[in-house]
């Protein structure tokens, strides 16, 4: 009888392979400290921008979460996994509103404190002021809801392609941009620093629609398609206005010193009631 053939399996030395990977990683990692030192030293130069300070800036992630929370209150049942009915609606709205209040206080407080530091002002009542502003903003939510209802109805009346209010609320970029604008506009009127712009720039990045929170927009506003729409800070828009994609309600480009002279002065168009502005105007 022939002897059984023996098979042997040889594995490469594991230690050798792992050592090679570690050595390669260490060799590349060794190049990082000089770059880190160069970056740190660059921020000693006042020409470079940084925020190295014990006073925190508002968090853009937290502000986006704040937008989502406000939308869940304004449109209950649309942007939450919770099943709602009349028996639990008040509890749900109460819980969401309480959470929104806490989120607002935290972010507004940071924004106000940072503004005080930037202008070298004493911050003696920043905490109390942030609470006052937060509750005033929440008190205005019913008015924001009324305006958004007119915006949804304007969309339903103005776009034959839409099938239902659900489609408008879930899908239409114009309504998302308008919702964020109307929320940011209230904070802007309350003179909250930086947060309103973070909010509208989030909507801009999501929709391609750039609405400055300082603009004044009446009820029944409808942006169709929306990509490329720009609405400047001092724009005034009446009621029942419809705007299509590519419309710019802007101002001339001005030197910085001229812009400062015109700060809060009227420099953007006024659109009267019942106007339609077609694409790329």
Structure in words:
GO terms for molecular function: acyltransferase activity. This is Serine O-acetyltransferase. InterPro entries: LbH_SAT (IPR045304), Ser_AcTrfase_N_sf (IPR042122), Trimer_LpxA-like_sf (IPR011004). One of its GO terms (biological process) is amino acid biosynthetic process. By secondary structure, the chain is mainly alpha-helical. The chain has helices at 14-29, 32-42, 60-74, 86-118, 126-139, 141-158, 165-171, 173-189, 195-207, 256-261; strands at residues 210-211, 216-217, 222-223, 230-231, 236-237, 242-243, 248-249, 270-271, 276-277. The protein has one domain: Orthogonal Bundle (serine acetyltransferase, domain 1). The chain is built from ten helices and nine strands. The strands form three sheets. It has a three-stranded parallel β-sheet. A three-stranded parallel β-sheet has the order 2-5-8, with no helix packed on it. A three-stranded parallel β-sheet has the order 3-6-9. Helix 3 crosses helix 9 and helix 6 (141-158) runs antiparallel to helix 8 (173-189). The longest helix has 33 residues, at 86-118.
């Amino acid at each position: 009888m022939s002897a059984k053939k023996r098979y042997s399996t040889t594995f490469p030395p594991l230690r050798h392979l792992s050592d090679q990977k570690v050595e390669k990683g260490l060799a590349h990692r060794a190049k990082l400290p000089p770059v880190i030192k160069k970056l740190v030293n660059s921020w000693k130069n006042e020409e470079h921008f940084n925020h190295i300070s014990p006073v925190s800036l508002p968090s853009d992630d937290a502000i986006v979460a704040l937008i989502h929370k406000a939308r869940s209150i304004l449109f209950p049942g649309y942007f939450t996994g919770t099943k709602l009915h009349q028996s639990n609606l008040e509890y749900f709205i109460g819980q969401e509103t309480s959470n929104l209040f806490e989120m607002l206080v935290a972010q507004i407080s940071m924004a106000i404190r940072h503004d005080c530091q930037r202008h070298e002002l004493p911050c003696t009542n920043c905490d109390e002021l942030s609470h006052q502003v937060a509750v005033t903003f929440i008190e205005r939510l019913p008015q924001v809801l009324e305006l958004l209802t007119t915006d949804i109805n304007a969309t339903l009346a103005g776009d034959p392609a839409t099938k239902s209010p659900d489609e408008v609320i879930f899908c239409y970029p114009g309504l998302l941009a308008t919702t964020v604008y109307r929320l940011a506009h209230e904070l802007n009127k309350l003179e909250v620093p930086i947060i309103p712009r973070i909010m509208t720039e989030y909507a801009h990045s999501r929709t391609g629609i750039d609405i400055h929170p300082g603009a004044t927009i009446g009820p029944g506003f409808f942006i169709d398609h929306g990509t490329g729409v720009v609405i400047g800070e001092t724009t005034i828009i009446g009621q029942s206005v419809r705007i299509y994609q590519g419309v710019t309600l802007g101002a001339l480009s001005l030197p910085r010193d001229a812009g400062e002279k015109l700060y809060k002065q009227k420099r953007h168009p006024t659109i009267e009631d019942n106007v339609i502005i077609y694409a790329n105007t």
